[in-house]
Amino acid sequence: MKRTPLYQAHKTLNAKFTEFGGWEMPLQYSSIVKEHLAVRTHVGLFDLSHMGEFEIRGQGANELVQKLSTNDVGRLTDGRVLYTLFCNETGGIVDDLLIYRHANNHYMLVVNAANIEKDFAWVEAHNDTDVVVKDVSEDTALIALQGPKSINILKPFVPERDVSEISFFRFVLGEVAGIPIVISRTGYTGEVGFELYVDANDAEKLWNALYPAVMEAEGQPVGLGARDTLRLEAGLRLYGMDMNDNTNPYEVGLGKFVKSKNRQFIGKKALLTQKREGMTNR
């Protein structure tokens, strides 16, 4: 199994581990209930470095991600994030993901851990341009701060910018403890929070900088167990559990992320038929 750059930090905290998507990940540190409640009332610190990241650069990058995405990438401006789906020709969901727009010729895709290889092959198979697609998952770590105290915790680490002014589903480039990061106002808990993308070599330094502040704020490090209960409580879907290649967006309540007007994308024809004829599975 793969391990994140923070594996030793989790061992030091006596985390209980589990296998997830081919990764050895912390399931819990104290208890799932305690960690869940910490996020709802204070703040939680998550290692999400098992997630996959692809960089897409070059002339035609916008057209490539637009062709792959059920949601309308054309709505994005620089510094914005879009939740979307990749669907196959029959309307089945290849994956759900986030698309980050750095510029018209530069995007970052964040995909589910278990689908990294599948998704990268899918993107490459439909890249008929000179656009460069690079899997940077192993070079990238992802640490999340989630909970009502997350803004106040992050503020002192980013004095040059008021992080409370970063709107939901927007991101900025910044530094925490001298470490260059992407600060994203996103999350998978239903709470206020941030997801921080950092070079894998700096992950432990970033974790160690944030951890004392989290604990001082009555927060907790949070494993995948509470992450799952938090997302369930928030009504968020999990690929492989709630959807797969054989389910379409309308069957899992994600039809609002299919934007078909005045644009073409993979699976559009099948999805229009499914929307018209109604659901077969639920």
From TrEMBL:
GO terms for biological process: glycine catabolic process. It catalyses: N(6)-[(R)-S(8)-aminomethyldihydrolipoyl]-L-lysyl-[protein] + (6S)-5,6,7,8-tetrahydrofolate = N(6)-[(R)-dihydrolipoyl]-L-lysyl-[protein] + (6R)-5,10-methylene-5,6,7,8-tetrahydrofolate + NH4(+). It holds the Pfam family GCV_T. It is found in: Mitochondrion. Keywords: Aminotransferase, Mitochondrion, Transferase, Transit peptide. Its EC number is 2.1.2.10. It is an enzyme of class 2 (transferase). Residues 6-261 form the GCVT N-terminal domain. Substrate binds at E195. One of its GO terms (cellular component) is cytosol. It comes from the Eukaryota. GO terms for molecular function: aminomethyltransferase activity; transaminase activity. Belongs to the GcvT family. The glycine cleavage system catalyzes the degradation of glycine. The glycine cleavage system is composed of four proteins: P, T, L and H. This is Aminomethyltransferase. The lineage of its organism: Eukaryota, Metazoa, Porifera, Demospongiae, Heteroscleromorpha.
